[in-house]
Amino acid sequence: MKPRVKVCCISSKEEAQLAIHYGASAIGLVGKMPSGPGVINDKLIYEIARNVPPPIGTFLLTSETTFENILEHHLIAQTNTIQLVDAISIEALKKIRIALPGIKLVQVIHVINEESVAEAIQISEYVDAILLDSGNPNLKIKELGGTGKVHNWKLSRKIRESIQIPVFLAGGLNPENVNQAIQEVEPFGLDVCSGIRNDGKLDKIKLESFMKNIDKA
C-alpha cells in the first residue's frame, strides 16, 4: 500500500495548497515548541486549517502536556487532528477522548532505544495513530521533532510490527532516502518537513521529487 504523506511545518495557506496539490493527505501546523522549526501562531494555524478541504488531515502539533492546556490549544486552532509531541498521561488522553470525540489523536514517540518500543505499545491503546520521530524529550531543552535527523529504523520497524494502529514515520526524510525508509519500515504514512525545504520555505521541486520517489517505492 502506498504510504500517505503528511507535509509538516506548513507556514501559510499557499504552502498548504502546494502540499495538497502534490498529493499530501495531511498537513502539520506547529504550535509553540521549546525548539525546532516551523512554529507559527495559533491564529494563523486556525486560518490555514479552516481553508483546508476535507478529507485532508489538519494536524495541530502541540507541546502541551495537560488535559486543560491541550483542550484550550485545540479550541483555538480548530484542527481535525491533534499531534501530541510530548508524553502525556493516559488519564489526560481519556479526558481528551471524552471532550473531543470527533478529533483524531496522534502520539509522537521519539525513537531512542528499546524503551521507546514499550512506550509505543502501551500508548497505542489510547490514540488513533503513532508518529515515530527523532529527537529527545529528556534533554534540558527538549527536542520534540524537527531535527532533520534519521533515527534507528530497525526500532521503528519493530514498533510498527508490535502495534495494531497506523504508524507514521518522521525524522530526516528527504527525496533521496524516502524509498529506503519505505522498504525498511513499511509505515502507513510518512511525515516530512526540512527535507523538502530551502531556507525554511517549501520547495516545489523537492516536494515533487519526494512524491515521485514514493511512487517508485
How would you describe the overall organization of this protein?
The protein has helices at 13-21, 42-50, 67-77, 90-99, 114-123, 153-162, 178-185, 204-216, and strands at 4-7, 26-30, 57-62, 81-84, 104-110, 129-133, 167-169, 189-192, 197-198, 201-202. It has 217 residues and is an alpha/beta fold. Strand 1 (4-7), helix 1 (13-21) and strand 2 form a beta-alpha-beta unit. The model has no long low-confidence stretch (mean pLDDT 94). Helices cover 37% and strands 19% of the residues. It has an eight-stranded parallel beta barrel, surrounded by six helices. It has one domain (4-216): Aldolase class I (TIM Barrel), CATH 3.20.20.70.
Tell me the CATH topology. TIM Barrel
CATH class, anyone?
Answer: Alpha Beta
Strand count: 10
Radius of gyration: 16 Å
Which sequence of SSEs, written as H and E, runs from N to C?
EHEHEHEHEHEHEHEEEH
- Helical content stands at 25-40%
Distance between the termini: 10 Å
Q: What characteristic shape results from the CA principal axes?
A: globular
* Strand line-up in the sheet with most strands: 1-2-3-4-5-6-7-8
Task: Produce a short descriptive summary.
This protein is an alpha/beta fold. The protein has one domain: TIM Barrel, CATH 3.20.20.
Protein traits:
single chain; 217 residues; alpha/beta; eight-stranded parallel barrel; two-stranded antiparallel ribbon
How would the blueprint of this fold be written?
Elements: E1 4-7, H1 13-21, E2 26-30, H2 42-50, E3 57-62, H3 67-77, E4 81-84, H4 90-99, E5 104-110, H5 114-123, E6 129-133, H6 153-162, E7 167-169, H7 178-185, E8 189-192, E9 197-198, E10 201-202, H8 204-216
Parallel strand pairs: 1-2, 1-8, 2-3, 3-4, 4-5, 5-6, 6-7, 7-8
Antiparallel strand pairs: 9-10
